[in-house]
Design brief:
It is found in: Nucleus. It holds the Pfam family HSF_DNA-bind. The chain is α+β, with helices and mostly antiparallel strands. The chain folds into two domains: about 110 residues, Winged helix-like DNA-binding domain superfamily/Winged helix DNA-binding domain (Arc Repressor Mutant, subunit A); about 60 residues. The protein is rod-shaped. A hairpin with a 5-residue loop joins strand 1 and strand 2. It is about 65% helix and about 5% strand. It has a four-stranded antiparallel β-sheet with strand order 1-2-4-3, covered by helices on one side. Strands 5-6 form a two-stranded antiparallel sheet.
């Protein structure tokens, strides 16, 4: 009889401890949920429109500015590995978007239902593990290279400003060239119309046009010279 009572007490104690354990979500999940819920960091990490997945928009800034304040490290790859151990899935190939059925916006109480998986990498397809790790390492290397060479940003900034100035100069030169070409076309049109008027004014004898007077020839020569000069400027 005493043995049965002891067994019942042991079962109750075990169930009670299990309930307390499940009522307290893991620290990693609490911190991650708090991070995603924080509106000031939405440009770095935020929920999707439905609140069923979260997206890391800027992994470099996340690793550099946010992870050290919560997880005491700045390794984005470690953050991704932790998500995988709790059963999160990367659901988009073009961005860092993660999903778990019990990780939702405004429902912190569901975090108690998320259990840490053991030997998670042996349960996932090997190709998915390699892809996730490769992408994580690529982002980490990119973050390291950016933080180790701040002078490159200055060089790129100056180069960008120089290209903008050159582009502005080219636009001004193009506008000037277009203006000259329009003036040339107007001069040609005026010259042709003037020539037509002069030809119609030439005297005609027995059906044959006579030569122009000396003054009219000089006018045509001046038109030709002006047209040639303007053409050479375009």
């Amino acid at each position: 009889m005493n043995k049965e009572v002891c067994m019942k007490h042991a079962c109750v104690k075990s169930a009670s401890s299990e309930h307390v354990k499940r009522a307290t979500p893991p620290s990693f999940l609490l911190k991650t949920h708090t991070l995603v819920e924080d509106p000031p960091t939405n440009d770095i990490i935020s929920w999707n429109d439905q609140g069923t997945t979260f997206i890391v928009w800027r992994p470099v800034e996340l690793a550099r500015d946010l992870l050290p304040t919560l997880f005491k490290h700045s390794n984005f790859s470690s953050f991704v590995r932790q998500l995988n151990t709790y059963g999160f899935r990367k659901v988009a190939s073009g961005r860092w978007e993660f999903h778990h059925n019990m990780f939702r916006r405004g429902e912190r109480q569901l975090l108690c239902e998320i259990q840490r998986r053991k030997a998670w990498d042996s349960k996932l397809p090997q190709s998915l593990v390699k892809t996730t790790m490769k992408e994580s390492n690529d982002h980490q290397r990119f973050s390291s290279s950016m933080s180790s060479s701040p002078s490159s940003y200055v060089s790129l900034s100056y180069e960008n400003k120089r290209l903008k100035r050159e582009n502005g100069d080219l636009c001004v030169e193009l506008a000037s060239t277009k203006k000259k070409c329009n003036e040339l076309l107007n001069l040609v049109a005026f010259h042709l119309n003037s020539k037509k008027m002069v030809v119609e004014q030439r005297p005609k004898l027995f059906g044959v046009w006579l030569d122009l007077p000396q003054e009219k020839r000089r006018e045509h020569e001046e038109f030709s010279e002006n047209m040639s000069a303007l053409s050479s400027q375009c």
